[in-house]
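Quick one: structure for this chain?
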Amino acid sequence: MAWTYLVLAGLFEIGWAIGLKYTDGFTRLLPSVLTVIFMVASVVLLGLALKTLPVGTGYAVWTGIGTVGTAILGIILLGEPATALRLSCISLIVLGILGLKMAAS
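Got it. Here's what it folds into:
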């Protein structure tokens, strides 16, 4: 169950990271409220995951999911560059997440 919590926490991290872009510096009410809700949900789920997972593994996977998802959505939604180097680096993060999952099993 801890890994499920961790993946959900990572997904909520993606949500709040992308949400920050839409808050316009927390001047837009609905995006700001949703972003804060996603922040709280992400941290609560991370805390639940860390009850049984090692903190280093959990934190690294949580930030990795957030980083990869935010970078990909930045490319898709915000028109950020999708260079070969950038995509290669994102792939390395994914490999790191998978390696940590395998090492923790």
